[in-house]
UniProtKB/TrEMBL annotation:
InterPro entries hit by this protein: Cupredoxin (IPR008972), Ser-rich/MCO-related (IPR052953)
Keywords for the protein's UniProt record, in alphabetical order: Signal
Protein's recorded name: Cupredoxin
Signal sequence bounds: 1-20
Length: 180
């Protein structure tokens, strides 16, 4: 009876994981990078911390949301504050608004390749992206496409949402914010 119960539990866990993981999942490294959307100190809270991260293929990037109402949207270097294309790329959705402390959920995605992954916050109230709320994973440090330049280029843009349904996340998954 005990053995049966644990097998059933294992199967449930496995199925749950399969359903939540993206279709193009690569082998996991077990490494998790935690990035805070929002800040208690920098730029009036409109800041990702850390905002320039180096990660390996298979690493997970887990966004924790601090006060205000932030998102994470994948972008290109050339078009700051705009999603890759409608329906493409990573989007957390507007699911993490919090007045104090961290949101009760986190948004996680897995690094699929070593290409620079540009992202921004798509909150229009307060112009978060234009104010410098953007970041990068695996910036090419030999090139001139830097995060500092992305921020300068973002100043005169208009923020675009990835889809009409601003609650629907894509390219990653939402899970409870577990204490470390
Ligand atoms: C978060 O921001 C979005 C977009 O501006 C808005 O539609 C939504 O109502 C906000 N949520 C909360 C809880 O403030
Ligand atoms: Cu924001």
């Amino acid at each position: 009876m005990v053995a049966f119960t644990s097998i059933a539990l294992a199967a449930t866990t496995l199925l749950g994981f399969t359903a939540a993981a993206p279709a193009n999942q690569v082998r996991s490294t077990g490494v998790i990078h935690r990035i805070f959307a929002g800040s208690t100190t920098a730029n009036g809270g409109l800041h990702f911390e850390p905002e320039n991260v180096v990660a390996q293929i298979g690493d997970l990037v887990e966004f924790h949301f601090l006060p205000k109402n932030h998102t994470v949207v994948q972008s290109s270097f050339d078009k700051p504050c705009e999603p890759l294309a409608s329906g493409a790329g990573v989007f957390s959705g507007f699911n993490f608004a919090t007045a104090q402390g961290e949101s009760k959920n986190v948004f996680t995605f897995q690094v699929q390749n070593k290409e620079p992954f540009w992202y921004y916050c798509s909150q229009i109230i307060g112009n978060h992206c234009q104010m410098g709320m953007s970041g990068v994973i695996n910036q090419n440090f030999d090139g001139d496409k830097t995060l500092a330049k992305y921020k300068v280029n973002s100043k005169n843009t208009k923020t675009v949402q990835p889809s009409a349904d601003i609650l629907k996340s894509q390219g990653g998954w939402i899970q409870p914010n577990m204490p470390l």
